[in-house]
């Protein structure tokens, strides 16, 4: 059912005076909620439409399109686009956005999920639920979501903040911080310039590099090196096929969330060489460490 907007209803949300006068002057009172936002966007008043969406919330309506190409687009319900999406300005969706192909947008925001059958390129990216892309996700600004899942790379020049997990098919390259309440798993190298903080574990099929602290509530595992400019901290075990190297003057900590008596089973540290500055955890030398070649 469509939501009807009235002047009294609108005043109860304390709108700005200019936006309210424009709303009344254009006879939007008593009209349909979505129609009002369409009129605002068409008039170039995208921020007014954003304000309506943020204050009156999502609807159960569904809009299906073959393709979407617009300067800006605001829709209160679920938006299904069978092809690609091209919105260089603001693309705001009250519920979910589903695209059969790629998505290119300026500000991309959805109250629930964002799913793309191709790649996602956006200036900033926010979802109340999950972000899934069959290909890459590339964002110059920040990413905020429940979960992120990509078939290819995850590249972000800002900060990535997740209330869940990140599963990335290839490389992770984040210039800001990457913080996820659950785990981080990548098929390629992980490089995070800022703080890397995972509530659960961190695992990569390549190397792991951090420009600040690297910390995980569970274990950390890399098939290459694990290197940080600051400290490396794991709640349980830590393993690298290469080296484990913390920054100058910083330590390597395993078993932060495990009793010391349980370190041999739950907080072992394995690498090609014993990490310099190993503060806690049970060091296990490689099997070949004692071999002597004649």
List the topology elements.
Blueprint: H1 7-11, H2 17-25, H3 33-42, H4 46-56, E1 62-65, E2 68-69, E3 73-75, E4 78-81, E5 85-93, E6 97-99, E7 103-110, E8 114-116, E9 120-127, E10 130-133, E11 137-139, E12 143-145, E13 147-150, E14 154-156, E15 160-162, E16 166-168, E17 172-174, E18 178-180, E19 184-186, E20 190-192, E21 196-198, E22 202-204, E23 208-210, E24 214-216, E25 220-222, E26 226-228, E27 232-234, E28 238-240, E29 244-245, E30 252-253, H5 263-266, E31 268-270, E32 278-280, E33 282-284
Parallel strand pairs: 1-4, 2-5, 3-5, 4-6, 5-7, 6-8, 7-9, 8-10, 9-11, 9-12, 10-13, 11-14, 12-15, 13-16, 14-17, 15-18, 16-19, 17-20, 18-21, 19-22, 20-23, 21-24, 22-25, 23-26, 24-27, 25-28, 26-29, 27-30, 28-31, 30-32, 31-33
Summarize the structure in words.
- It is built from 5 helices and 33 strands.
- The protein has 294 residues and is mainly β.
- It has a 20-stranded parallel β-sheet that branches.
- Helix 3 packs antiparallel against helix 4.
- 44% of the residues are buried.
List keywords for this structure.
single chain, 294 residues, mainly beta, 20-stranded parallel sheet, disordered C terminus
Distance between the termini: 83 Å
Q: How many helical elements? A: 5
Tally of individual domains? 3
- Please compute the radius of gyration using only Cα atoms: 24 Å
Largest sheet: 20 strands, parallel
- The secondary structure category is mainly beta
The tally of strands reads 33
Could you list the spans in which at least 5 consecutive residues all have pLDDT below 50?
289-294
Mean pLDDT: 90
Strand fraction: 35-45%
**Mass-distribution shape:** elongated
Helix content: 10-25%
